[in-house]
Amino acid sequence: MSQWSQVQQLEIKFLEQVDQFYDDNFPMEIRHLLAQWIESQDWEAAANNEAMAMILLQNLIIQVDDQLDRVSQEKNLLLIHNLKRVKKLLQGKYHGNPMHIAVIISNCLREERRILAAASMPVQGPLEKSLQNSVVSERQRNVEHKVSAIKNSAQMTDQDVKYLEDLQEEFDFRYKTIQSLEQNDKNSALIKQEMLALQAMLNTLDYKRKEVLNKIGRVIHEIDMLMSNLLTEELLDWKRRQQIACIGGPLHGGLDQLQNCFTLLAESLFQVRRQLEKLDELLTRLTYDGDPIPVQRPQLLEKVNFLLYNLFRNSFVVERQPCMPTHPQRPMVLKTLIQFTVKLRLLIKLPELNYQIRVKATIDKNVSTVSNRRFVLCGTHVKAMNMDESANGSLSVEFRHLQPKEMKTSAGNKGNEGPHMVTEELHSISFETQVCLYGLTINLETSSLPVVMISNVSQLPNAWASIIWYNLSTNDPQNLSFFNNPPAATLSQLLEVLSWQFSSYVGRGLNSEQLNMLAEKLMGQQVSYNDYQLSWAKFCKEHLPGKSFTFWVWLEAILDLIKKHILPLWIDGYVMGFVSKEKERILLKDKTPGTFLLRFSESNLGGITFTWVDQLENGDVTFHSVEPYNKGRLAALPFADILRDYKVIMADNVPENPLKYLYPDIPKDKAFGKHYSCQPNEVSKPSDGGGKGYVPSVFIPVSKILNDCTEPHSPSDLLPMSPSVYAVLREHLSPTAIETAVS
């Protein structure tokens, strides 16, 4: 079943979540019509490879054309209209930046997998629940409402300033008219009456000046309060959501909404600044005793400039954290001399700033004692922000060709590169720029989340563990000494993050039973683990009891095994995986003989085995577990084929496949049939395969179980026997002869 088909079967509350991330950037019609094709492409790789992204974009447009031809024949007018609109969008919006559509589709597919994983969980995890509570949603709506009200107030004040200007011009004209009269004319009763009218007009001017200044003061106060409270909280929440998304959590949104709020506030502040400049202009033309403008205007202008400085400083954010294109699901782990990408955005989107802001990237700019290792950035490290590269028109800049290079120490050697010293050292990528606008010069700085520098890909698993632990445990964006004394993590939150590793990396998260097994492996047989605190050492540094590896190394090897060798089986949900030997026997003991389940080895790194239940002649139940298959064996023979062709030879019996039903009662061929590489026992002719007249051979996994042995021998005796030869053997030879042959 395709991923999209699974999505369509979700409950309405999950479908509403899916609806939130499909918009005009990637319409749901295309996701629906091209579901299988979209899921068969590697969008994650294309998101960091421009040539590959361009090919996929062109192929996507071709797929849309094919759908257009189909619906044109069906005369579906509405769908024809929508597909033409989508084609125009793809050609116009993404032609100059094909990687952006790859990022969008990759994120949508990933978010679908996360929602599917969440739907299989009995309850929402504590981290995800905290990020999606109703208080946060209410605050978002409150911020948008207040920003809109502030913008309206600033525009209304513009009308008041214009009225004040018109009133002063009328006063100025009438006053100068009187001043131009002869002295005798000034003493007339009519002129005296006009002077009284001018005095009344001056009083009105004074009142209006005070009123405008008060209104400007209220707008400034409302902006100040909004920036100090709600907007700051909203920005911090977005940064926290970004942290969680980086370690596999829910896709973080809301940056476009924040950009809209920041931009409207900046426009309002500049509008207020122009109003204060207009008041200064009116002041130069007319002033009087008790005039409020020279008293209040300097203070208001100073406050406006202060708010603009703070607004700009907070608006400079890292939109996409540093990430190597070769490892798109392991952000913030950077390898020396390997390119990485990072994207910055200025949330204040003003046309005047397009191509006017140059951003410089540096590494460990303000760090002197955290690490003994020193790095420099090679490649293009200065670029201009612009609105043309982003599909949504945001003011941003993306560095695509930066490389970290380690500098030699004074002793001539590189820094300490022990297995944990390197992967627990945190570094910072910093960015600085300067904004010059309307007479203001504002220096801006921001930094990435802490990154881990590795010099060998073998350090990647432990480096990623450090990234997970840091971003799970703290919302401090720059605590580079974090691992000097790493805090413990709540086990319930850690298990949620571990499930995210599976949903984001291999397409299916973990259910409650699988998480319970991991919890027991981490903390032993505990009654409850909701409030259990797990140390960093126990997660990543201390070996598991009786093993030569840590918990994290064991789990990472399983992720690698799934990704490279059993991904379709895992996505279909047929691999139970995380179940102890004791639990598997409880599950199987009452099942039909031949019922089996698949589980990951607890003693071998990156191994998978299967256990089946059998019944002896006396009625006793027995269990057999085959020696785990590792990536070496699975590279030679697909796991689905192993399950199909696996044979067991009991003493004096014909070889037969003991695997009948996948737990609980799914016929084996129904579960795995679509993953078989060819038809079972297919008889090959010499002309079908190997050249020079040879009959093609296949590997058949065979185990031999002796009368006094409940465990099969190692399946390493993969016999190079063609299906036709095996069929002939089984048809014409006695069981004893077959046993002799396979031995």
TrEMBL record:
GO BP: any one term: type I interferon-mediated signaling pathway
Main location group: cytoplasm
Places the protein is found: Cytoplasm; Nucleus
GO cellular component: cytoplasm; nucleoplasm
Residue ranges annotated for the SH2 domain, each copy included: 570-672
Coiled-coil stretches: none
CDD domains: SH2_STAT4, STAT4_CCD, STAT4_DBD
GO molecular function terms attached to this record: DNA binding; DNA-binding transcription factor activity, RNA polymerase II-specific
Keywords carried by this UniProt record: Acetylation, Activator, ADP-ribosylation, Coiled coil, Cytoplasm, DNA-binding, Isopeptide bond, Methylation, Nucleus, Phosphoprotein, SH2 domain, Transcription, Transcription regulation, Ubl conjugation
Family recorded in the similarity comment: Belongs to the transcription factor STAT family.
UniProt-recorded name of the protein: Signal transducer and activator of transcription
Lineage: Eukaryota, Metazoa, Chordata, Craniata, Vertebrata
Gene giving rise to this polypeptide: Stat4
